[in-house]
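Q: Hi! First time doing this. I have a protein sequence and I read that you can turn it into a structure. Is that right? Here it is:
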Amino acid sequence: MVVLKIHSHPTGLPEFSRLDGQSDRALLGSLAHLAPNETGHASAVMLPDGKIFARISRGNGRFAQVRRVVVVGDNVIDYEATEKATTMPTTDEAFLRNQQAFGAKTVSMLSRMRVGVVGCSGTGGWVVEMLARLGVGELVLVDPDVIERKNLNRIVNSTAADAIARRAKVKVFARAIQRLGVGTKVIPCHSDILQRKVVQALAGCDFLFGCVDSADGRDALNRIAAFYTIPYIDVGVHLQADGHGGVQQVCAAVHYLIPDGSSLLSRRVITAEQVRAESLHRRSPEQYAALRKEGYIQGVNVDSPAVISINGFAASHAVSEMLARIHPFRRDANSEFRLQTFSLADGAWLRIEDEEPCPYLSRRVGRGDCTPLLDNAELS
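A: Yes, that's right. Below is the predicted 3D structure, encoded as structure tokens:
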């Protein structure tokens, strides 16, 4: 772990002063002997307008500038070390309309972002499609499944040939983005999320999207967001139908979760029992079946109806939520939009007041690569 010393420059001096250099060499030099690490300890300055710049001590009185400082909260603020990099207009006509809507700074920020999307099916597929066309620089796509014919009604960019060949969903989207030709790089992870290499790939992201139904997958994403200080958007869709054309309810929920805030567990979206049951079902189906038969464990969710228009509706709100966090455009404060639910059957759009910080995860913010990883023995 790294110690960060941070202080203010009330006069607005936008650089480290000579006195800062003397102070940093004394303090950070001592820390290098008391608590050595590969990275080096850090020093930062906050200006009156909130801007932060920082540097790392490399030993022997030498410093390396921190390229990016990102503040993660209801607004996500990216302070670049070089202001020019955040205001340079795009020369690519593919993103000219995006720039006209959100400005050169936001388009430039998107082009440098690395976004993780876990779950590349009905909802996740739309999220991936929109992020690529917004100009996100790099996408980490995670999904263990392959395209099947039953997916063709809702997964964009999938074809009957993909279903016959049983192509991995992440590979299908990687192919589609390459054909799009806008420069977005893709890291496809044909795996479930609870793999060390997948966690490490997601840990380097600037934003996370969860488009999965499983409780253990959502819990893992929430942990990654907290341990590595990443904003996380969870998307859920529920269509209640009788199977014969009768629809009782169509609803969606978009959760925005900040690392030191509430969690899906504390919001009661998932339960610890669901996480335990689904984890056991994945690791040991035989033991899971035996315990379920004996009544010791609840069943996991089964497939539910899914329709492309409803998935697209929810995904659009989720991507717009990310845009609202990096480019605040709402009349009300973003803090009032942490949990939104939509009922298409009732025509209702609700903002629900957030819960208190999660008593478990809020104590683990920024822990990073601890052992076991994410406090999960499966990843040790």
